[in-house]
Task: inverse folding
């Protein structure tokens, strides 16, 4: 530890400010509150602050950030926009630093977010010990009033001096270069220790339950009346998630200048309390009621993130509690109420274990790809054959998806319809539903699109080996299913009996007619098709009725058969019921689900089904793993 | 000549609001020349009835999109007068700055976008981008600067946010003001250039003169815009509370806006009136610009109203710089006077780009407005426009129809009328 | 082929059209990607052959209704610009009183019956008279939002407005909430897209962009009551731009 005298500390900060090429951002006053903002002089720095309006996460993951710059007057012109500005953050409190450490795990973990990584690498953090405590904070109860790692320097402002602890070589270097610091005396070290020791008792509010028990308590209280009660008062304004240091979800938009040439892809903070957080192109919203959205936030912080990363994602800063106009956002109050309740109904909300597939490229920059072939399959569905300009194969597994970009419009997640095979071409079946897919419909052979991926947990083809396969496809669910069907047909000897059931709205909606025909003619493949309805004069001689009507007639051995089901959300309940009637065990049923996806790698937060990321643990799921999740079906 | 001329300009272009021009002549004699105001009346008097004193400024601001700062200031002054509220010197300085921003924005819009096309024989400013690109870019740059000025002081130009009872809800910092000052200084040579350009085409405007009464705010020291007494070129100086004896509104069937008159059939308000009454108070830059444009009070050619606006552009920029110097010197603190409801009546006058504006409110003891009256500059000009047309028409009758039409249009445009405003006065008085 | 574009105004203050002019240099980009065939406030030329019609202002009189319907029949797309066109705005304040009452107040006993200029009906927003394809809300409009609308239309896609409250933008701007400062604000129930310009400038949101479709009005009333806002104050503020939005 080093000690710096007040004048020396001021000089240190002023020298940092004067240093060219270095932005110094510290805590200063804004009206009656405090914010992190660029410092013009050391006099502005207020290390005695209680809490800032927005947490310092805004310096690492800004409220609005340019991701890509593109020029749509050219066939394919895109550049990643990185913020390489060197920064020093001064005054980060322990709880906020702990939150930054959590954010590091999320953004620098399995899939590294380059934009975040560049900014994080170029930011030096000078944390500071807590001097004043805001009314609603409860860090003492969570142990977040002190922090052990993540800082380059940690400064404690005492009455008459500053004690600085070095956390990293970079921090030590900074201190040596700009400050006049001496080794701290034992007395100084003791004063710092005492200050930290005294903190917990100074908090006005206490949690009645250990944070590591939150998961358990939440398991028991999914149906507690508090969710409804509070949600009734909820404005769903998103304030709680915006001011929270551990909330890191974001949305992505494309913008184009009026010259219709230059544009950019930006990301902006998003929150699960907002109504359209889970909106997909078809207009469906997967977390519709305020109660579900209000409750989700607590479960994410108290159960899902702990399950996934091992940390409880609340640091007790009190910002949400203070700034919520309806006064319902206080985790301390909610957890204290739940802890004292005795609802016995346990609801486990598991996250399936899945092997993570590393992505080989820069995470957010699409690669150029060519439309090689385009064939309409119905009024609203079109088949595209696409290859990356680089000539390399996509390297996908059946069941994975890609994110397709059209600059200026946006990006959409689309399942891959072709089996991996060899070679660079892959196929996408696209339904014209939203902005991106509608624009894609106007493109021609030779036009370029952007491709990111492949993403997601595909079908486990190993686990299917040696089994009987029962494929059930509904509508455009056949698109991802086809990639697996054709893969298994290409490796026919590895699988036993294959049955394919396909149903769609009416004869004009039939997809992949060539494949259907060949499946119908294949030996060793039992293929049945049905349509929901048939307008007279449609030349349809086959079955009429919903897909479930085909299931009873199929003869299968439930123990050795794997059912792979993909279709519109409404279909699953009914099909699964029929399969259960046939005696199929839960773990023999595989499904593929869709949700709103913006990143594809478990960061933007939109695709969550309770604690599960459809883009990471899914879109392919084993029914046994997710059947208990209230938000799944 | 046995020519029958029948001109009807429907919904005159390049003016704010809707008005029609009628011109009928037969055999060399003018039968009818009329200025018709057809704008939909919006009944602002109904909108403020019973409203709280805190809402009078946001509502009356919506009378006009171009002079909303002026309406806001007149409304605030009238409300403050009724409630007995005194604002600080700093607030007055900032309000004067706000008004300059509006004047600049409105005048440059009028000169550059609405009038200049006529001076160059085109239909709008867009074709000038190709032929006089440099000048257009400069005009656009000045317009942008004026908007940035209003953005800084008022939050935004149209329907200002920070102008409130008792003061400002947010004030600029000294750094922001210094930055603005630098940009205003840089604009001065550009303004001189534009003035030069206008001077060079002055001959394209008709040499038409008709002496009328000119009415504007006057002050002992300043070129009056924010504060002053009512000045008349005919009758001298009067207190603002005297306004009704001057405006004398009456309903005319051809117009959804009322007409006004004082000691003559009509009177003129606006930049030309201000120039005629306040010329001696111009600052150096204003005076220089007047010289370049060949203007010396009194000017009786209504087409010169546009040129008087150019003089005011220069004067406003210079005065703004002086105000900023004073504000930086004093330090901007954000002083807001306390405002409590009480019964009272307040009358206020402010010069907006188009002329003198009056707001008159009566407020009851709990703070609700019981009676309100707004006299808009443009509706004070309608009678003058009509009289000018009647005087101008006989001289035009021998000209080609297109020229008659254009000249009459240019006459109305010279007044820079804000027609939407003029049909939205809050008025309950008749003659 | 550049889409042809026309601007029309009805009962309004023309402030929204002024924002189009206020695009400053960007207006040169605008006229590059669309062809402006009619813009009464800025140009003399006029043509009835337009693809996209921008409408500012509310509808007051039968003659206005007729003109609007004619415009609708010419245009492929019709866009309502500003609060007066989108939701009626301040123009609807007079709907509280019967038309005869309001006419008498302004024009007294002047004989105006039969004069079509004065034949006034209760104020209506544009979509209460004809079908509207897109809205650009606000009083006045935000010119960035206008630019985005134009680029969307030029791309052939429907412009999308935010469906979340002003609070989201206010928080991203790190404003200290006005409720904390003893003021009140309609931000939580008003559609975002203005970048919280009024709260950023120290004044509470008045709802000029229109309340959200999914209006959490009871939750909002609770919040206001807890902050000692009287019913009268609440209603006066709600009704400024969103007259009778919830039937009050």
Result:
């Amino acid at each position: 530890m080093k000690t710096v005298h007040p004048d020396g500390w001021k000089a240190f900060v002023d020298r940092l400010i004067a240093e060219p090429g270095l932005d110094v951002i510290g805590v200063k006053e804004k009206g009656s509150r405090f914010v992190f903002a660029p410092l013009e002089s050391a006099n502005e720095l207020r290390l005695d602050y209680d809490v800032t309006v927005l947490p310092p996460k805004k310096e690492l993951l800004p409220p609005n950030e340019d991701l890509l710059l593109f020029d749509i007057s050219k066939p394919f012109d895109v550049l990643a926009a990185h913020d390489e500005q060197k920064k020093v953050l001064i005054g980060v409190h322990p709880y906020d630093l702990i939150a930054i450490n959590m954010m590091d795990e999320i953004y620098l973990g399995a899939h590294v977010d380059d934009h975040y990584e560049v900014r994080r690498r170029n930011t030096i953090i000078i944390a500071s010990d807590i001097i004043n405590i805001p009314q609603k904070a409860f860090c003492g109860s969570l142990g977040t009033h002190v922090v052990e790692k993540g800082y380059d320097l940690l400064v404690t402002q005492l009455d008459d001096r500053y004690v600085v602890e070095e956390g990293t070589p970079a921090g030590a270097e900074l201190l040596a270069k700009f400050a006049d610091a001496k080794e701290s005396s034992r007395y100084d070290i003791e004063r710092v220790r005492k200050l930290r020791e005294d903190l917990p008792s100074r908090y006005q509010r206490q949690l009645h339950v250990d944070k590591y028990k939150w998961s358990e308590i939440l398991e028991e209280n999914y149906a507690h009346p508090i969710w409804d009660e509070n949600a009734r008062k909820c404005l769903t304004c998103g304030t709680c998630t915006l001011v929270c240091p551990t909330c890191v979800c974001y949305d992505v938009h494309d913008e184009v200048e009026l010259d219709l040439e230059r544009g950019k892809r930006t990301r902006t903070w998003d929150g699960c309390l907002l109504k359209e957080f889970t909106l997909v192109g078809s207009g469906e919203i997967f977390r519709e009621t305020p109660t579900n959205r209000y409750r989700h936030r607590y479960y994410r912080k108290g159960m899902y993130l702990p399950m996934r990363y091992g940390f409880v994602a609340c640091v007790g800063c009190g910002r949400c509690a203070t700034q919520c106009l309806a006064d319902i956002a206080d985790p301390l109050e909610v957890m204290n109420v739940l802890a004292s309740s005795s609802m016995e109904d346990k609801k486990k909300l598991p996250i399936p274990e899945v092997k993570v597939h590393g992505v080989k490229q820069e995470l957010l920059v699409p690669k150029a790809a060519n439309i090689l072939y385009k064939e309409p399959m119905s009024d609203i569905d079109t088949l595209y054959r696409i290859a990356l300009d680089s000539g390399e194969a996509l390297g996908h597994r059946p069941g994975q998806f890609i994110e397709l970009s059209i600059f200026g419009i946006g990006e959409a997640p689309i399942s891959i319809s072709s089996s991996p095979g060899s070679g660079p071409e892959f196929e996408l079946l696209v339904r014209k539903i939203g902005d991106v897919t509608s624009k894609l419909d106007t493109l021609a052979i030779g036009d370029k699109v952007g491709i990111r991926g492949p993403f997601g947990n595909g079908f486990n083809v190993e686990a299917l080996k040696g089994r009987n396969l029962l494929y059930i496809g509904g509508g455009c669910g056949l698109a991802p299913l086809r990639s697996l069907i054709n893969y298994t047909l290409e490796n026919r000897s590895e699988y036993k009996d294959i049955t394919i059931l396909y149903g769609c709205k009416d004869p004009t909606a039939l997809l992949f007619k060539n494949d259907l025909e060949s499946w119908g003619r294949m030996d060793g493949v039992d293929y049945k098709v049905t349509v929901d309805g048939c307008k007279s004069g449609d030349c349809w001689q086959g079955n009429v009725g919903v897909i479930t009507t085909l299931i009873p007639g199929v003869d299968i051995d439930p123990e050795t058969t794997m059912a792979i089901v993909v279709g519109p959300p409404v279909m699953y309940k009914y099909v699964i019921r029929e399969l259960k009637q046939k005696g199929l065990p839960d773990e023999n049923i595989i499904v593929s689900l869709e949700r709103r996806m913006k990143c594809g790698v478990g960061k933007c937060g939109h695709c969550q089904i309770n604690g599960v990321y459809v883009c990471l643990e899914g879109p392919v799921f084993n029914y046994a793993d997710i059947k208990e999740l209230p938000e799944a079906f | 000549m046995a020519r029958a001329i029948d001109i009807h300009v429907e919904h005159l272009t390049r003016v704010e609001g809707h008005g029609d021009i009628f011109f009928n002549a037969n055999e060399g004699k003018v039968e009818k020349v009329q200025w018709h105001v057809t704008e939909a009346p919006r009944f602002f008097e109904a909108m403020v009835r019973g409203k709280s004193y805190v809402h009078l400024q946001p509502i009356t601001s919506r009378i006009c999109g171009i002079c909303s700062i002026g309406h806001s200031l007149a409304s605030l002054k009238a409300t403050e007068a009724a409630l007995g509220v005194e604002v600080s010197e700093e607030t007055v300085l900032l309000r004067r700055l706000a008004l300059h921003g509006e004047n600049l924005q409105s005048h440059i819009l009028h000169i550059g976008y609405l009038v200049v096309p006529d001076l160059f024989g085109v239909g709008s400013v867009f074709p000038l981008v190709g032929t006089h690109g440099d000048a257009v870019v400069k005009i656009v740059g000045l317009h942008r600067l004026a908007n940035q000025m209003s953005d800084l002081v008022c939050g935004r130009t149209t329907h200002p946010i920070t102008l409130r009872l008792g003061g400002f809800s947010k004030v600029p910092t000294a750094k922001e003001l210094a930055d603005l000052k630098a940009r205003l200084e840089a604009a001065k040579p550009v303004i001189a250039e534009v003035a030069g350009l206008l001077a060079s085409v002055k001959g394209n405007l008709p040499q038409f003169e008709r002496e009328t009464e000119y009415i504007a705010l006057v002050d002992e020291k300043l070129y009056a815009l924010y504060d002053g007494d009512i000045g008349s070129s005919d009758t001298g100086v009067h207190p603002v509370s005297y306004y009704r004896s001057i405006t004398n509104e009456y309903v005319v069937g051809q117009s959804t806006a009322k007409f006004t008159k004082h000691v003559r059939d009509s009177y003129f308000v606006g930049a030309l009136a201000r120039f005629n009454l306040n010329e001696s108070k111009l600052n150096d830059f204003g005076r220089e610009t007047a010289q370049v444009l060949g203007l010396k009070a009194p000017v009786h050619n209504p087409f010169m109203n546009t040129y008087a606006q150019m003089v005011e552009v220069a004067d406003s920029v210079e005065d703004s710089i002086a105000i900023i110097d004073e504000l930086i010197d004093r330090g901007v603190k954000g002083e807001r006077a306390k405002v409590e409801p009480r019964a009272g009546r307040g009358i206020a006058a402010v010069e907006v780009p188009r002329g003198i504006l009056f707001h008159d409110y009566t407020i009851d003891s709990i703070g609700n407005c019981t009676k309100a009256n707004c006299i808009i500059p443009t509706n004070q000009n309608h009678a003058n426009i009509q009289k000018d047309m009647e005087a101008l028409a006989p001289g035009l009758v021998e000209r080609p129809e297109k020229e008659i039409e254009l000249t009459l249009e240019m006459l109305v445009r010279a007044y820079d009328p804000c027609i939407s405003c003029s049909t939205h006065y809050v008025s309950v008085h008749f003659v | 082929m550049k889409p042809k574009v026309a601007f029309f105004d009805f009962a309004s203050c023309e402030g929204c059209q002024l924002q189009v002019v206020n695009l400053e240099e960007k207006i040169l980009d605008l006229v590059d990607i669309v062809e402006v065939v009619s813009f009464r406030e800025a140009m003399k030329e006029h043509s009835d052959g337009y693809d996209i019609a921008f409408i500012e202002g509310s509808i007051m009189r039968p003659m206005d209704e007729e003109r609007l319907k004619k415009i609708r029949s010419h245009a492929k797309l019709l866009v309502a610009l500003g609060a007066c066109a989108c939701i009626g705005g301040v123009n609807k304040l007079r709907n509280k009183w019967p038309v005869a009452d309001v006419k008498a107040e302004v024009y007294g006993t002047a004989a105006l019956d039969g004069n079509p200029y004065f034949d006034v009906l209760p104020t209506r927003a544009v979509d209460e008279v004809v079908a509207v394809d897109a809205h650009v809300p606000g009083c006045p409009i935000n010119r960035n939002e206008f630019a985005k609308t134009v680029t969307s239309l030029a791309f052939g896609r429907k412009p999308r407005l935010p469906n979340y409250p002003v609070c989201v933008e206010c928080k991203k701007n790190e404003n200290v909430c006005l409720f904390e400062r003893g003021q009140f604000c309609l931000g939580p129930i008003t559609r975002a897209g203005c970048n919280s310009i009024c709260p950023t400038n120290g004044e509470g949101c008045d709802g000029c962009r229109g309340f959200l479709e999914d209006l959490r009005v009871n939750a909002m009333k609770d919040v206001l009551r807890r902050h000692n806002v009287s019913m009268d104050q609440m209603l006066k503020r709600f009704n400024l731009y969103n007259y009778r939005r919830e039937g009050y």
